[in-house]
Design a protein that fits this description.
The complex is a heterodimer of chains A (273) and B (262). With 273 residues, chain A is an all-alpha fold. Chain A has helices spanning 2-5, 8-34, 37-59, 68-89, 92-116, 121-129, 137-156, 158-166, 168-173, 178-219, 223-248, 252-272. The longest helix of chain A has 42 residues, at 178-219. Chain B is α/β, with parallel strands linked by helices. In chain B, helix 3 packs across helix 4 (118-130), helix 3 (98-110) runs parallel beside helix 5 (147-159) and helix 4 (118-130) crosses helix 5 (147-159). The chains are: A mainly alpha (273), B alpha/beta (262). The structure holds adenosine-5'-triphosphate (ATP) and magnesium ion (MG). Magnesium ion binds next to helix 1 of chain B.
């Protein structure tokens, strides 16, 4: 047991899982409240395209040493802000279409760039699948910074965010600076998605960010309980996923995703009763 | 500030892109008073009340709330007005309890990181009691309340901030007649305490005895004034585009209109 914990890769993975659980509880819950969970998947694919482009620019010596995470952050932010801009002026139905289209665009770009960097495609695959056990200290520091900023700001403006999600028009009428809060949340969501990319991968970011909060929302009696329960669910899925993966030697994020989904189904059944 | 004049609208024109939603609307209501805005679907009722809050931009005309130009004093007038939006605009899937909804408004107004004081809690309790929400509903999730109870919670959320003008957009849609009368007599008591009230409504009959002014709207202003003078067959037929019968019985008059919200 102690032997396992003294392994720096495993130690980093455990810390990452705990940080991800906090991000999931804050950003995930608010995203569920806003009814914009699809946004997270959209940003994840945008980030993937950005990372692939960065690797491509580096590979062909156009911008040597370009960091994939920087590319991911730029594309993820652009996507989030773009969607935010359109959603502030168009109707709900149109936003779904806008997210859908940007999703398709991001995915096409990602595949295009990946196909152009054949030899380095492995690096891009790492971002699609993610690997909790391959995190470097730099990755971890980035995760620590982004998750603490996120948790801090969400705690600070928690009531404003919830009020706006509940009744945006009422929030305007109350004199709240709704646009400012909306963009702040979009930026935090984009940054969270990007730092999660390396650990859990573009495909499973959605699962790790959204499913614990969605499960919590099924059974919680008030908003604070959603936050607490989603933290618990994310911790259970993450840590259990890590443990199982060490024993069976499979990808931890995949197991974590499975466990989160099972929890979701259980909460769904619990709510039905 | 002008304490005598709750709202004054001059020559208001509102456009959405190229669509002219309101044309040349002018009226004013003294303070305190109760005004009802009526008109068919799409008449621009919501647009008018949102203009008063400066939530939509109008390209022509002026609006004053207690003498303050809403364009120049947006923040101030929003602090003076309590707004109860059309209930369908409110999200249902967030697990907020009835009392949370009211407390949230109170705390958002107080500012980030403030912790609810005993006094805040008392004011929330007071607001929920005033709107006659049964105690058993206070800890229920908002989406589990009946239509009338939801409406009461939203009114409590508005009055907990102690507005001088209360604007309600279709507070009576999907609310049974008994609850309508209950809410209306409560609103009437607010007027006595010096709060002006503007209500968007489709059916004025159950509440007409409490109403000081009626504004009949269909893109243009069809009529404005005391209920008796506005609610004529001619005016109503012009607003709704169908034949309307009015029955006058003593001081009250009843308009029989086909249109009613589901
Ligand atoms: N944001 C918007 N963009 C474009 N057109 C709008 C917008 N809001 C309202 N409209 C249009 O303006 C007109 C007036 O709408 P409004 O919501 O003010 O009507 P209403 O009288 O409140 O109707 P209802 O009884 O259905 O609530 C309608 O034709 C509507 O389609
Ligand atoms: Mg309306």
């Amino acid at each position: 047991m102690l032997e396992i914990l003294s392994n720096p890769f495993i130690m980093r993975a455990i810390i990452a899982v705990i940080l991800i659980a906090f991000v999931s509880s804050s950003i995930g819950s608010l995203t569920i409240f806003r009814g914009q969970s699809f946004l997270v998947a959209g940003i994840a694919h945008g980030a993937l395209a950005g990372a692939a482009l960065a690797i491509f620019l580096d590979y062909y010596g156009i911008i040597p040493g370009m960091n994939p995470i920087l590319g991911a952050a730029l594309f993820g932010l652009a996507m989030a802000l773009g969607i935010g801009y359109f959603s502030s002026r168009d109707s709900r139905e149109k936003i779904d279409i806008i997210i859908g289209i940007s999703f398709a665009l991001a995915m096409s770009l990602a595949i295009l760039f990946i196909s152009m960097i054949r030899e380095y495609a492995v690096q891009a695959w790492g971002l699609i699948m993610g690997d909790l056990l391959l995190l470097t200290s730099v990755d971890l520091v980035l995760l620590i910074i982004i998750s603490s900023v996120t948790v801090f700001l969400v705690t600070l403006f928690y009531r404003e965010f919830v009020f706006i999600s509940f009744d945006e028009e009422g929030a305007y009428a109350l004199g709240l600076r709704v646009m400012l809060y909306n963009y702040l949340l979009l930026v935090l969501t984009a940054l969270s998605v990007v730092v999660l990319l390396k650990g859990v991968g573009a495909i499973l970011v959605y699962v790790m960010l959204i499913i614990p909060a969605a499960a919590a929302n099924n059974i919680a009696s008030n908003t604070s309980n959603v936050m607490i329960l989603s933290l618990v669910f994310a911790l259970i899925s993450g840590l259990l996923g890590l443990a199982v993966s060490l024993v069976l030697n499979v990808a931890p994020s995949a197991i974590a995703g499975l466990i989160a989904t099972i929890i979701y189904i259980i909460t769904l059944a619990a709510r039905r009763r | 500030m002008n304490e005598k004049l709750a709202v004054m609208v001059n020559n208001l024109h509102v456009k959405y892109n190229d669509y002219l939603a309101l044309e040349n609307v002018s009226f004013s209501v003294p303070h305190p008073s109760i005004t009802v805005i009526m008109g068919p679907n799409g008449a621009g009722k919501t647009t008018l009340v949102k203009s008063i809050l400066h939530l939509v931009d109008f390209y022509k005309g002026d609006i004053f709330v207690f003498g303050l130009n809403v364009r120049e004093h947006e923040k101030k007038i929003r602090n003076l007005i309590g707004y109860v939006p059309q209930r369908e605009k409110v999200t249902e899937h967030i697990p907020l309890r009835a009392r949370d909804v009211v407390l949230l408004a109170k705390m958002v107004k107080t500012g980030p990181l403030s912790i609810p004081t005993k006094r805040d809690m008392l004011e929330v309790k007071d607001a929920l009691e005033k709107v006659l929400l049964p105690k058993s509903a206070w800890n229920k999730r908002f989406n589990e309340l009946s239509g009338g109870q939801k409406q009461k919670v939203l009114i409590a959320r508005a009055i907990v901030l102690k507005p001088k003008l209360l604007i309600l957009d279709e507070p009576f849609s999907g609310v049974d007649t008994v609850s309508q009368r209950e809410i209306m007599s409560f609103l009437s008591s607010l007027k006595k305490k010096g709060i002006s009230i503007i209500i968007v409504a489709h059916d004025i009959n159950p509440i007409v005895e409490h109403v000081d002014y009626v504004l009949l709207l269909n893109k243009k202003m069809i009529a404005f004034g005391k209920p008796r003078s506005v609610l004529t067959e001619e005016n109503l037929s012009r607003a709704y585009g169908i034949k309307v019968h009015v029955i006058v019985r003593g001081e009250a008059c009843y308009a029989i209109i086909g249109d009613r919200h589901a």
